[in-house]
Amino acid sequence: MAYFVAIIMLTILTVEDIKEKEISVTLAILFIVSGLALALVRDNGFSVDIIYSILPGVFLLAVSIITNGKIGAGDGLALIGLGAAIGALGAIVAFVIGILLAAGYGAAKMLRKKIRGTAALPFLPFLLTGTIFVAVGT
């Protein structure tokens, strides 16, 4: 159930990320609230695991602030929601898969001279793909 909700929410955010080059804070917060609700059910109430599950996204959000938005804050918010929904380990694995996919895609585009090294890519399609891989592998 948690992966289903996470994939649906990430799909909605991904479409928006591709179209608008940003995501709605309202939708991201809805994802976070949904993820936290799933975590409360999964953990039979509040536990320290819920805090651990959102830390990867909080870290990414902090990196966004430190880099003055070079990494989108929406990516951090989406990762907070993902972590809350599926747990820290699943979110970290999906994030790493997403980074590897994005790096490969970006490198291929640069080799084909379709983009420059400074071009911005939407990250959520890669995070969604990573989440699907984790869901299938679980």
Task: Walk me through the structure.
Helix 1 packs antiparallel against helix 2. The protein has one domain. The two termini are 12 Å apart. It contains six helices and no strands. With 138 residues, it is mainly α.
Average pLDDT number: 92
Total domains, how many?
1
Spans with pLDDT under 50 lasting ≥5 residues?
Answer: none
The N- to C-terminal Cα distance equals 12 Å
Could you give a short account of the major beta sheet?
none
Structural class: mainly alpha
Give the SSE order as H and E letters.
Answer: HHHHHH
Radius of gyration: 15 Å
Question: What are its keywords?
Answer:
mainly alpha, 6 helices, globular, single chain, 138 residues, 78% helix
Describe how the helices and strands are arranged:
Blueprint lengths: L1 H19 L4 H18 L5 H19 L6 H14 L1 H24 L12 H14 L1
In short:
With 138 residues, this protein is an all-alpha fold. Helices cover 78% and strands 0% of the residues.
